[in-house]
TrEMBL record:
All residue ranges annotated as the Peptidase M1 membrane alanine aminopeptidase domain in the record: 225-440
NCBIfam families xrefs: pepN_proteo
Keyword check for Lipid metabolism: no
The protein's name: Aminopeptidase N
Reaction(s) this enzyme catalyzes, per UniProt: Release of an N-terminal amino acid, Xaa-|-Yaa- from a peptide, amide or arylamide. Xaa is preferably Ala, but may be most amino acids including Pro (slow action). When a terminal hydrophobic residue is followed by a prolyl residue, the two may be released as an intact Xaa-Pro dipeptide
Keywords associated with the record: Aminopeptidase, Hydrolase, Metal-binding, Metalloprotease, Protease, Zinc
EC number: 3.4.11.2
Record lineage: Bacteria, Pseudomonadati, Pseudomonadota, Betaproteobacteria, Burkholderiales
Cofactor list: Zn(2+)
Organism (species): Ramlibacter tataouinensis (strain ATCC BAA-407 / DSM 14655 / LMG 21543 / TTB310)
Domain named Peptidase M1 alanyl aminopeptidase Ig-like fold: residues: 452-544
InterPro entries: Aminopeptidase_N-like_N, Aminopeptidase_N-like_N_sf, PepN_Ig-like_sf, Peptidase_M1, Peptidase_M1_dom, Peptidase_M1_pepN, Peptidase_M1_pepN_C, Peptidase_M1_pepN_C_sf
Annotated GO biological process: proteolysis
Stretches assigned to the Peptidase M1 alanyl aminopeptidase C-terminal domain: 548-875
Amino acid sequence: AAVIHRADYQPPAFWIDTVELCFDLDPAKTRVLNRMRLRRNPDVPVQPLRLDGEELNLARVLVGGQGTSFKLEGGQLVLENLPEGHEPFELEIFTTCAPAKNTKLMGLYVSNDSFFTQCEAEGFRRITYFLDRPDVMASYTVLLRADRRRYPVLLSNGNLVDQGELEDGRHYAKWVDPHRKPCYLFALVAGQLVCREQRIASRSGQEHLLQVYVRPGDLDKTEHAMNSLIDSVAWDEARFGLPLDLERFMIVATSDFNMGAMENKGLNIFNTKYVLASQSTATDTDYANIESVVGHEYFHNWTGNRVTCRDWFQLSLKEGLTVFRDQEFSQDLAGEASARAVKRIEDVRVLRTAQFPEDAGPMAHPVRPDQYLEINNFYTVTVYEKGAEVVRMMYTLVGRDGFRRGMQLYFQRHDGQAVTCDDFAQAIADANPGSKLAELLPQFKRWYSQAGTPRVQASARWDAAAGTYTLTLGQTCPPTPGQPVKEPVVIPVAYGLLDDQGRELASGLHVLTQASETLSFQGLQAEPVPSLLRGFSAPVVLEFDYGDAQLLALLAHDTDPFNRWEAAQRLALARALRFVAQPHEPVALDAPFVDAMRGILRHPTLDAAFKELVLTLPSETYIAEQLEVVDPPRIHAVREAMRQQLAQALQADWEWAWEAHQVGGAYRPDPVSSGRRALAGLALTHLCLAARASADPVWPGKAYQRFKDASNMTDRFNALSALVVSGHELARPALQRFHAMFKDEALVLDKWFALQAGAPDRGGNVLPAVRQLMQHPDFNIRNPNRARSLIFSYCSANPGAFHRPDAAGYVFWSERVMELDAINPQVAARLARALDRWNKLAEPLRGAAREAIARVAAKPDLSNDVREIVTRALA
Ligand code: HT7
Ligand code: ZN
């Protein structure tokens, strides 16, 4: 297969106006009749029609009702003898496919005896021959026929216009989508499903039917998803003036799904993980994720579906923008400024622990990539999360009202079109003449074309005699594969200056555009403390040589909650890096740091959720990113030792925190209650860790009791996790009991596998446990959620256990990548990325990791998905 380049984009040679699809659904052999009206694109030279297809059996091709000659070339169906001129003509294609054998979960597949589709990015070609590209938009009519008893529910996009009985116990349903769409938004679902439904009226008074479909038995877990959907509809109308444009909007849950969810027009298909929730099976985090993913898919209805991507290089046009929108939605729903800040910190944490490493590794690519071998590999944190930060910077530069105006202009110009990231940025800028964005647009757009995380070097000079404080801000960006030299980008730097009492002396937004710039502040009495990059106003690494005193002042006083948290992270990180660098020195935390942590924990007014974030040490991955040479077991040991000391030094405070943050009354996953449960959970973990040192059984006993008695999954899981993390002997019976309690709850069993695979390593015990769990009757590598819960939790989320000096972790990884590649290449390719940063590893890990990657690369029949990852890794 060939590398595809953005620069090679050509408009399609044909347009498809209408598509009539008729499905005879059968797991072993589904028959698909595809009747299309096409016409030549007058703007493109005359050429044959080349339709994409994959794993299809072709039975018949008719043009205008007559047989015609055709060729099959490299999977494409090529038709040369088509009517000349620009009049529409009819093309009919009859194919069959085998959904039950479809383990890739792309196209039409079977899960739990129901049919589902996944067409983004290039799955539609696995259903029928088609121009499988997002800039070809058509009107769809879909007829579904299937056995009524096995498949009582038959769904597709749009409106149900007809249904009825057929012979032999079969029935049919006919759906018409009122909106034109690219084929990646096509969907069908057929099976034994039940639904929760709700009628709502929009602001304009228009009525809509909302439905959430699940397997019988799961209906009691759909209330939160439905409420999230109702909130999403109301939010998009209120915040952006974007109404629901459908009479009926459906969500369907499946337990076999490659990603989180899919925004098919009017028929969203979701991973059960992002739909099903009850207080006894889902944690507060699950509830929050459901809200955000339901919102995300719903918001795609405008940003993605009404205006879509011209080609897959523009993926961030819809994904970056929609992530920005779902982040804003969750912040708005969280309400209070402090709860908004918590959400912002969580989002930045994801960016820094997942996207920054991607941007510094072999898979680094611009938000709008220039080339790919397999598009599935580019559904990345760069396209999604960094893309959202790019949209957020535009928002910062034009303001809230300006951004709303920009969105309105974007839809005015492009509704119903397939467009580019340039079109989006142009609309936001044009709606805000005179703004910094409009002024700097060409330079701003480097955020779309340059890979790599820019670094902002800040330095300060204090002239006491003149009372002048001078800040110098510089920017650089390290080279990335294929981009050795970088140009300066536009970096909005939100800042404040504090005095030693924590009073704000100045604040503002500086837009950094040059390689180096200077800001000067006059008339100050004493040297201020700079609070830079407030709210994480740009996706950059800020380098400033903060002293402990300055960080402690920011932690105590900054009016910007993000930078308050950031100060604690910097304090902890500096210590972790020092300990890592001194392997022969004891890991001993200093009193000022411990006291500062105590101060936050005991603070009378700060939110519990915020305290929990401050008291959580930087992750091992984040610590590793700061180092040139990485020894993951050493980082793990240091972080564990720091946590152990915080556990012991603050024992009385943790006891207070646990007692003071119990949540009574009915379970509610709101930010305040969730924050209290999170802090109580963190306290319990530290108390069990402290008990490890003293061999005092009281707190492990309390954790076990809480584990047994908890009235919700958050408390139960936190208690179980405290026992597992502290390595207490009660962990074993608790895990057994947990499994017995939830043996029929797939999503809870995923947690059970993940907890064990992600446990702190003690003498190399995790890998044997993982290998043993692979043999567990509940383990099934074909189910992506289960594979992720066991294999990914070990290889990608447990660096201290995975990077073993004996290389056994890497052997396990290479075996699993190759095993999964034969089943589901998309999932295999994600796992392959666990060794992205092999080049930074300390020897002998580095050599062993390289060998493992080479072993995978040497496999002859590798998918494009995995091949692209391992080839880039070894380049
Ligand atoms: N737009 C959706 C992407 C997606 C996907 C892509 C490749 C293979 C399977 C997939 N399932 C969903 C998800 C989203 O961003 O909303
Ligand atoms: Zn999306």
